[in-house]
Write a structure and sequence with these properties.
mainly alpha
């Protein structure tokens, strides 16, 4: 469930960002069209779990380009506080479901646990 929530949150946010690149008061340039389409297609692929590593890598590169201003920002924005709060809620729930992972203080302090299921005392049914 945690991975599904994370994929959905990132994928749908990327697709919405792509729609913002394609919409707006002015006609987008060919670069904005390409970036918008890449964000929409890969956002939907990530949400569906289709070619997840490739879609995640391409989305990461697109957002890295936006963050360091390699690509222009869309004319409209997703900076509504409620929308950001919803994304943080979904991400927090997904992280709670996934747990801390091996590279964490919890993993270091408590270690991995092996669950041993004892053999059944009943004879197998034939």
């Amino acid at each position: 469930m945690g991975l599904l929530l994370l994929r959905a949150a990132v994928g749908l946010a990327a697709a919405a960002h792509g729609v913002l690149y394609l919409s707006g008061p002015s006609i987008p340039s060919p670069g904005k069209w390409l970036l918008g389409l890449v964000l929409i297609v890969n956002g939907m692929a990530l949400t569906a779990g289709f070619f997840t590593p490739v879609a995640g890598l391409l989305l990461g590169l697109c957002f890295l380009g936006i963050a360091v201003s390699w690509f222009p920002a869309p004319t409209w924005g997703l900076h509504d506080g409620r929308l950001v709060a919803c994304g943080m809620i979904v991400t927090a729930i997904a992280l709670a479901l996934l747990g801390p992972g091996a590279f964490s203080l919890d993993g270091r302090l408590f270690g991995r646990r092996e669950i041993v299921i004892p053999p059944s005392s009943r004879p197998p049914e034939s």
